[in-house]
Amino acid sequence: MTESDLIYAAATVDCEGTITIVKHLSTHGKGGISWYRLHVAVEMTSLEIPWWLHNTFGGSFKCYPAYNNPTKHKGTFIWYMDGGKAVYFIFLIQPYLKLKMQQAQVAIKFQESKESRQGIRTTELERDKQEHYRNEMTKLNKRGV
Length: 145
Hints:
Elements: H1 3-16, E1 17-25, E2 34-44, H2 48-57, E3 60-64, E4 76-82, H3 83-93, H4 101-115, H5 124-141
Antiparallel strand pairs: 1-2, 2-4, 3-4
Protein backbone atom coordinates (compact mmCIF):
# COMPACT_ATOMS: atom_id res chain seq x y z
CA MET A 1 0.00 0.00 0.00
CA THR A 2 1.16 3.50 -0.82
CA GLU A 3 0.94 6.82 0.97
CA SER A 4 -1.78 7.76 -1.54
CA ASP A 5 -3.76 4.70 -0.40
CA LEU A 6 -3.47 5.82 3.22
CA ILE A 7 -4.52 9.38 2.39
CA TYR A 8 -7.51 8.18 0.37
CA ALA A 9 -8.54 5.72 3.11
CA ALA A 10 -8.31 8.46 5.75
CA ALA A 11 -10.43 10.83 3.67
CA THR A 12 -12.99 8.07 3.12
CA VAL A 13 -13.20 7.29 6.84
CA ASP A 14 -13.41 11.02 7.64
CA CYS A 15 -16.32 11.55 5.26
CA GLU A 16 -18.15 8.23 4.90
CA GLY A 17 -16.91 6.09 7.77
CA THR A 18 -17.23 5.51 11.46
CA ILE A 19 -14.82 4.78 14.27
CA THR A 20 -16.67 3.53 17.31
CA ILE A 21 -16.61 1.26 20.33
CA VAL A 22 -19.41 -1.31 20.37
CA LYS A 23 -20.83 -2.66 23.61
CA HIS A 24 -21.96 -6.30 23.77
CA LEU A 25 -23.75 -8.10 26.54
CA SER A 26 -22.74 -11.69 27.12
CA THR A 27 -25.65 -14.00 27.81
CA HIS A 28 -23.42 -16.61 29.45
CA GLY A 29 -23.77 -16.95 33.19
CA LYS A 30 -25.95 -14.99 35.57
CA GLY A 31 -26.73 -11.41 34.73
CA GLY A 32 -24.44 -11.24 31.72
CA ILE A 33 -21.22 -9.27 31.46
CA SER A 34 -20.57 -6.39 29.11
CA TRP A 35 -17.62 -6.51 26.77
CA TYR A 36 -16.39 -3.92 24.29
CA ARG A 37 -14.95 -4.00 20.80
CA LEU A 38 -13.33 -1.39 18.60
CA HIS A 39 -15.06 -1.10 15.22
CA VAL A 40 -14.21 0.89 12.07
CA ALA A 41 -16.47 0.81 9.03
CA VAL A 42 -17.37 2.45 5.73
CA GLU A 43 -20.86 1.98 4.30
CA MET A 44 -21.80 3.25 0.84
CA THR A 45 -24.33 2.62 -1.92
CA SER A 46 -21.54 2.20 -4.46
CA LEU A 47 -19.41 -0.92 -4.48
CA GLU A 48 -16.02 0.47 -5.56
CA ILE A 49 -14.69 2.15 -2.41
CA PRO A 50 -15.69 -0.47 0.22
CA TRP A 51 -14.39 -3.20 -2.09
CA TRP A 52 -11.12 -1.29 -2.61
CA LEU A 53 -10.72 -0.93 1.20
CA HIS A 54 -11.29 -4.68 1.59
CA ASN A 55 -8.73 -5.55 -1.09
CA THR A 56 -6.16 -3.02 0.12
CA PHE A 57 -6.41 -3.30 3.92
CA GLY A 58 -8.22 -6.58 4.56
CA GLY A 59 -11.12 -6.75 6.96
CA SER A 60 -14.62 -7.87 6.12
CA PHE A 61 -17.03 -6.96 3.36
CA LYS A 62 -20.82 -7.32 3.27
CA CYS A 63 -23.61 -6.44 0.84
CA TYR A 64 -27.11 -5.57 1.98
CA PRO A 65 -30.03 -5.38 -0.43
CA ALA A 66 -32.32 -2.35 -0.57
CA TYR A 67 -34.77 -2.36 2.30
CA ASN A 68 -38.34 -1.19 2.52
CA ASN A 69 -38.87 0.25 -0.97
CA PRO A 70 -36.25 -0.86 -3.55
CA THR A 71 -37.56 1.69 -6.05
CA LYS A 72 -36.49 4.49 -3.68
CA HIS A 73 -33.54 2.92 -1.86
CA LYS A 74 -30.33 1.29 -3.02
CA GLY A 75 -28.55 -1.59 -1.41
CA THR A 76 -25.41 -0.86 0.59
CA PHE A 77 -21.87 -2.19 0.69
CA ILE A 78 -20.01 -2.26 3.98
CA TRP A 79 -16.32 -2.68 4.70
CA TYR A 80 -15.33 -3.08 8.35
CA MET A 81 -12.65 -4.17 10.80
CA ASP A 82 -12.72 -4.92 14.52
CA GLY A 83 -10.31 -5.09 17.42
CA GLY A 84 -6.56 -5.28 16.80
CA LYS A 85 -6.89 -5.15 13.02
CA ALA A 86 -9.02 -2.01 13.31
CA VAL A 87 -6.54 -0.24 15.58
CA TYR A 88 -3.68 -1.11 13.23
CA PHE A 89 -5.64 0.38 10.31
CA ILE A 90 -6.46 3.48 12.39
CA PHE A 91 -2.81 3.82 13.36
CA LEU A 92 -1.86 3.78 9.66
CA ILE A 93 -4.37 6.44 8.57
CA GLN A 94 -4.24 8.62 11.70
CA PRO A 95 -1.66 11.11 10.34
CA TYR A 96 -4.01 11.90 7.45
CA LEU A 97 -7.31 12.18 9.34
CA LYS A 98 -8.88 15.64 9.59
CA LEU A 99 -12.37 15.14 11.07
CA LYS A 100 -11.97 11.96 13.10
CA MET A 101 -8.56 12.53 14.68
CA GLN A 102 -10.04 12.59 18.22
CA GLN A 103 -11.96 9.36 17.60
CA ALA A 104 -8.73 7.76 16.36
CA GLN A 105 -6.90 8.82 19.52
CA VAL A 106 -9.63 7.40 21.77
CA ALA A 107 -9.71 4.20 19.71
CA ILE A 108 -5.96 3.68 20.09
CA LYS A 109 -6.08 4.30 23.87
CA PHE A 110 -9.06 1.96 24.19
CA GLN A 111 -7.41 -0.87 22.26
CA GLU A 112 -4.09 -0.44 24.08
CA SER A 113 -5.90 -0.83 27.40
CA LYS A 114 -7.46 -4.08 26.15
CA GLU A 115 -4.37 -5.62 24.58
CA SER A 116 -2.37 -5.39 27.77
CA ARG A 117 -4.70 -8.09 29.16
CA GLN A 118 -5.15 -10.25 26.10
CA GLY A 119 -6.38 -13.71 27.07
CA ILE A 120 -7.09 -12.74 30.70
CA ARG A 121 -10.59 -12.13 32.04
CA THR A 122 -11.48 -8.47 32.24
CA THR A 123 -12.03 -7.12 35.74
CA GLU A 124 -14.92 -4.85 36.66
CA LEU A 125 -12.50 -1.92 36.98
CA GLU A 126 -11.21 -2.56 33.45
CA ARG A 127 -14.77 -2.78 32.10
CA ASP A 128 -15.50 0.56 33.76
CA LYS A 129 -12.48 2.06 32.00
CA GLN A 130 -13.62 0.59 28.67
CA GLU A 131 -17.11 1.99 29.27
CA HIS A 132 -15.49 5.39 29.87
CA TYR A 133 -13.75 5.18 26.48
CA ARG A 134 -17.03 4.12 24.87
CA ASN A 135 -18.85 7.10 26.43
CA GLU A 136 -16.09 9.42 25.24
CA MET A 137 -16.39 7.99 21.71
CA THR A 138 -20.18 8.31 21.76
CA LYS A 139 -19.88 12.03 22.61
CA LEU A 140 -17.40 12.55 19.77
CA ASN A 141 -19.67 10.72 17.30
CA LYS A 142 -22.85 12.54 18.29
CA ARG A 143 -24.49 14.16 15.27
CA GLY A 144 -24.65 17.91 15.10
CA VAL A 145 -21.79 18.45 17.53
